[in-house]
Amino acid sequence: xxxxxxxxxxxxxxxxxxxxxxxxxxxxxxxxxxxxxxxxxxxxxxxxxxxxxxxxxxxxxxxxxxxxxxxxxxxxxxxxxxxxxxxxxxxxxxxxxxxxxxxxxxxxxxxxxxxxxxxxxxxxxxxxxxxxxxxxxxxxxxxxxxxxxxxxxxxxxxxxxxxxxxxxxxxxxxxxxxxxxxxxxxxxxxxxxxxxxxxxxxxxxx
Length: 206
Description:
By secondary structure, this protein is α/β, with parallel strands linked by helices. It folds into two domains: 148 residues, 3-Layer(aba) Sandwich (Ribosomal Protein L4, Chain: A), CATH 3.40.1370.10; 51 residues, no CATH class. The protein contains seven helices and six strands, in the order ββαααβαβαβαβα. Helix 5 links the parallel strand 4 and strand 5. Helix 2 crosses helix 3 and helix 4 crosses helix 5. The model has no long low-confidence stretch (mean pLDDT 91).
C-alpha cells in the first residue's frame, strides 16, 4: 500500500510503499486487548498493603465475660470487626505481571499499526527535526498538519529539539522506534511516523 509523505511544514515529499504485512493486516480486537492488558498489568507497582490481624499491636486479653453480657464472645481487640483492628483479606504486595508470548506482542504491534493505517490516522513524515526546541514552533507545525493529539515515532534516536518542544504539549508524545508499543499507539488520535521509523518497524516486524 502507498502512503503520502509530508514534511513538518505540511508540504508534500512524495510517496512511500508500506509493507502490507505490517500496515495492511486486518486488526483483531482480541489481540489488541491482550497486549493492552499485558502492558497495563506490567506497569502496576503492586505495593498496596494493609495490616493483617497478626500485625496489629493490641491487647489479646479477653475484655469481657464469656457469658451474661448479652453480646458476642470476643478475645483480642485486633479482630477485624473492631475499629483499629486488622483487615480481613486485604491487599498485600504482589506482582500483577502476566505472561504474553513474544509472537503475540509482535502481532499486536502489527495490528495496532494496521488499525491506524485503516482509519486514516497515520501520517508519514520525511523526518521530524526542528531548528530550535521551541514549543511554539512545534505547535505551528502541528496546526498545519491538522494534528492535536499525536504520537511521534522516530528512528533509533529522537531529535533532541523535537523532544524539548513536545514537553509542554500534554497530548503529544515522542518515542524512538524501539519503544513503539500497542497502548501508546492506540490511545493517540494521530500516529506520526518518520521514514526511518517505518523502515525500522518493517524490518523488525516483517
